[in-house]
Design brief:
With 233 residues, the chain is α+β, with helices and mostly antiparallel strands. It has nine helices and eight strands. A six-stranded mixed sheet has the order 1-2-8-3-6-7. The relative contact order is 0.23.
């Protein structure tokens, strides 16, 4: 494990609400469809966590182990997906729904009526300089869809990964597996924000965790660090 080396440009510690926390990235092999999440956690994290730590797990590896990863050639976008994807704001942090394949999966995940409503509202509010309404309406299931980018580790540079199902149950199951003395969170964190998809924390704890991870200490690309530990210093 490489637990003492931060990702490029990231600090190992951060102070939030007067308390300093270590953010310890855990490097793993590339997680593949068919892998067992419990086995991954046992192999890479079980011997590293201490009582009262918090283990955070990226939503992407949870989803991959749930069979929610699809290669681009498995996805046939409908004309509506091609049309809508043209109007998604592209950023340097990820493709989002700005390609036909990811938009197609959003239509399947969230339902066509909801995506159309989100797109219509977003089109109007953008005229007034307001951003973010599309994802606020479409919801976490749309926001959690990951498309391929240049920095993505193969084979996911040619794949779309959906958000995980039952993330709160996943977090509770992992806490139990780790002996019940470690909190667990399934997180969706990137360079422009973050969400806690499911955890064993209360709401205040989740809000604090978002602040602790606000600078995206794990990175999103070839760091291969889909797990991390939060520890009070």
């Amino acid at each position: 494990m490489n637990a003492d080396v931060p990702n490029d440009g990231k600090a190992l510690t951060v102070t939030v609400e007067g308390t300093t926390f270590a953010r310890i990235p855990i490097r793993t092999r590339v997680v593949m469809p068919g892998d067992d999440l419990d086995a991954i956690i046992s192999e890479y994290a079980a011997d590293e966590v201490m009582d009262d730590d918090l283990l955070f797990v990226t939503e992407k590896i949870v989803a991959i182990t749930q069979g929610r990863s699809y290669t681009l050639d498995e996805i046939q976008p409908r004309p509506l997906a091609r049309f809508l994807s043209r109007y998604v704001t592209k950023t340097s942090y990820g493709i989002g729904l700005g390609m036909p394949e990811t938009m197609e999966m959003a239509l399947r995940e969230c339902g066509t009526p909801r995506i159309l409503f989100a797109a219509a509202v977003s089109a109007v509010t953008k005229l007034f300089g307001r951003r973010g309404d599309f994802y606020r309406i479409a919801g976490d299931r749309a926001r959690a869809i990951d498309g391929p980018t240049n920095g993505t580790i193969p084979p996911y540079d040619r794949a779309v990964v959906l958000g995980p199902t039952r993330p709160a149950e996943v977090a509770m199951g992992l806490k139990t597996m780790l002996g019940g003395k470690v909190e667990v969170a399934v997180v969706d964190i990137n360079d422009i924000g973050g969400n806690i998809l499911g955890s064993t924390l209360d709401k205040a704890g989740e809000r604090r965790l978002v602040r602790i991870l606000a600078d995206n200490p794990l990175g999103q690309g070839r760091e291969s660090t889909p797990l991390g530990i939060i520890r009070t210093v």
